[in-house]
Amino acid sequence: MTHDRLSDGTLRSLPNQASVPAYDRDDIAPGIVHLGVGAFHRAHQAAYVDDCLAAGERDWGIVGVSLRSADTRDALAPQDGLYTLAIRDSGGESLRVIGSIQSMLVAPEDPGAVLAALIDPRTRIVTLTITEKAYLRAADGRLDETHPDIVHDLANPGLPRTAHGFLTEALARRRAVGTPAFTVLCCDNLPANGATLHRLLIEFAALRDQGLARQGDVQLAPQGDAPLASHIANDVAFPSSMVDRIVPATTDADRTRIAVELGVEDAWPVMTEPFCQWVVEDDFPAGRPAWEKFGVTMVADVGPFEDMKLRLLNGSHSGIAYLGLLSGHATVDRAFADPAIRQFVDRLWAEAISTLPEDAGLDTSAYTAELAQRFSNTALAHRTAQIANDGSQKLPQRIVASVLECLEAGTEMVHLTLVVAAWIAACAERGKALPEAHFTDPLDAPLTELLSRQLPANETVTAVFDLAGFARDHPERQTLIELAAVHLVHLRRDGPTLAFAALGIDSIEAD
After folding, report:
1. What's the distance, Cα to Cα, between the start and end of the chain in Å?
2. Residues 97, 99, 105, CA angle at the centre, nearest 5°?
3. Three-class secondary structure of residue 426 per DSSP
4. Does the residue 231 lie in any domain?
C-alpha cells in the first residue's frame, strides 16, 4: 500500500473517478461550528455544505469540534480535514472527497479555542450531532441538574465540558460585546429536536443565572439587560430538523479498499448509502447556505417529517437490530432478509403509520417501499450491534411514543411492544449468547445488575421502565408493561421464534 496520505497536496493525483472539491479551499471562510464531528455529520451535513461551497457560497466553511475524543481530529488533521465519502449500494461504489471541514478542535484539550470559534462573528450557525445521551436529560425529560458535567459547567463557565456549557457561555460572550446570536441547529434524533434543545439550554442558563445572582457576580451582558435565560428564550433561533442517511461504521477493510482505489491513504473514510434526506425549519436570522438548491427541504414545521422518520425508519431499525441480534443476524440486510423479521417489520410499520397525521402530505407507502430497498442494501453491512446502542435513550421517541398513541386511540400495538421486550432480552443476552459489551447503553451498570437477578418477566419490565423512565406518569403505562412482559416471556422461552409465532408470524432458523 502507498504511504502517501490524502491531503490538499495529493488531491490532483487522485484518479478521475473520484470526485474532489470543486473550489479553492483557501478562499473559504468559516461560518458554521459543528459540535460532535462523527461519521454521520461527515456523510450528511458536511456533504450538503460542500455542495454549497462548490456553488460559490464561500463563507460557510465548517469548524469541527469533538466534545470527547481526539480520534477524528487525529485522523483528519494530517489530511487537511479532507476525507472520502464512499457511497455504496448493491450495484457498486462511488467516491467523493469532501472539503467543507476546514479545521478540527478537541474540546477537552482546549475549551478556550472552541469558545473562540463560537464567538467569532463569522460564525452564524452552530450545528450538533452529539447523540441522544449527550443532551443529559433526566428521566422526566428535563435537564439532569445533578449530572457531574452539568455541575462542573455551572461552576466553571469558562471551561465547559458539555454542549450546554459551550453554547451558553458563547451566547453570553457574544451578547456582552454586541455580536448577534448564532442560530442553533440540532441534527440529532430527538423529538422536536430544536425545541427540546432550546428548552434544555434555557433550563441550564436559568441555573447559571441563579448561581451568579447568589454569588453577586456581574453577568457577561450589558448593564440592565434581562437574564441570560431570557436572552436565549427570546433572541436565539433553534429550528428543528430531521436528518436521514444510513452510515455504517468504517472498517479496516474499507480503509484498505479505498486506499487502493485512490492511490493514497485515508485514515477515516465514511461509508454511506445513496439516499440522503434533510428537512429543516427555515428560521435563520443570521443567514444560512442555500441548502434547498441541493435537495434539502426547507419547511415551516418539521414535526410530521420527523415523526415519520423516527417511527418508520428508526423504530423499525431498532426492531431489526434487537430481533436480529437475538436471531443471530450480524447485519441489517441479513436480518431483513429473514422472512419472519421482514413480515414483522411490515406489521410494525402498519401500527406506527396509524399514529402519523393524515393531512400532512406524508406518502408513507412510498417511504416504506424506499426503506425496504435501503434495508436490503447488501453493500453497506450495517451492523445490528451498532444500531442497538443506547436503547434506553432511543426507544422513547422511536417506539414508546407510538405505543402510547396507539393505546390512546385504541389501535393495535403488539408489534411495537415486542421491540421494547426485544431490547430487554438482548441486553440480558450480553455475556451469554451475545458477546459481553456487544452493544452499550448509558444505563448499562444498573441494567446489568437488574437483569442478573432474573426476576419474573412482569417484575423485570416494570423495573426497567422505572430505571429508564419509560411512559412515566402515563395512565396507560401499566398496559404497556403487561404487553411487553408477555413478549419477554416468549423471548425467554424460545427466542424470537416463539415471540413471532404468538403474533402469527412463521419463523425460520437463523443462518
Report:
1. 35
2. 125
3. helix
4. yes
